[in-house]
Amino acid sequence: MRLLTWLGVTAAALLCLNVGNDALRYLLPGFSGPDFIMHNAFARPWLTIHAALGAVALVLGFTQFVPALRRRAPKVHRWAGRIYLTACIVSGTAGLLLALKPAAGPIAAVGFGLAAVVSLVSAVQAWRYAVARRFDEHRRWVFRSYAVIFAAVTLRIWIPLSNLTELDFMESYRLIAYLAWMPNLIAVEIYLALSKHRLRAPARPVPGLAPGE
Ligand code: HEM
Q1: What pTM does this model have?
Q2: 3-state SS record for 41-96
Q3: What is the residue with the minimal CA distance to atom 43 of ligand 1?
């Protein structure tokens, strides 16, 4: 079982590095992505901002789950957390703009748009609970946030898998606008419901939030 976990974590880390590295190509002068993506009315400059900060969130976010880092270097964890959440908020806002005009049309727009909204809400909630030192809720929102950020990886797994179906590329892309993040989020919700973590720090109210919200 341990070996399986180790293999899973290593594969996920390598995929994050690979997808993050690919996304950083948008920073290269003259680099242009796939045609149908570049037709997005908001591609310039928002795609570059979205891809670059998305890469930061994807890679940095992964390291934040390493328990040894949190224990041994809490300051690094805090600063990496601030950078992660800032990257999520800027990249998510750019993602929301991109979601308004995908070449795949309104069905894809709603899928990506919902993902952007969930990602933004999770990042803001994770931040607020961290500031309020309510670490149990903070942890839950970070899990939700990363489930959606990890869509960058799962989307790139679904695309080749969709080639095995009869659907044409645009049809499957519309489906993938939902499949890329919804199963991740459902898996995280199941994990959170099954895990027995309890509040470790005394709760302090967050302005504007009802207790337990
Ligand atoms: C909050 C989650 C995310 C949302 C809502 C989102 C949304 C979008 C949207 C709407 C597009 C344009 C699609 C189109 O026009 O058809 C796009 C493209 C792109 N996104 Fe994201 N994205 C998210 C996370 C990420 C992350 C974490 C990365 C980092 C690796 C990333 C990297 C990219 C890249 C590189 C493209 C260009 C497509 C390509 O080259 O394959 N995205 N994203």
Answers
A1: 0.91
A2: CCHHHHHHHHHHHHHHHHHHHHHHCCHHHHHHCHHHHHHHHHHHHHHHHHHHHHHH
A3: 95
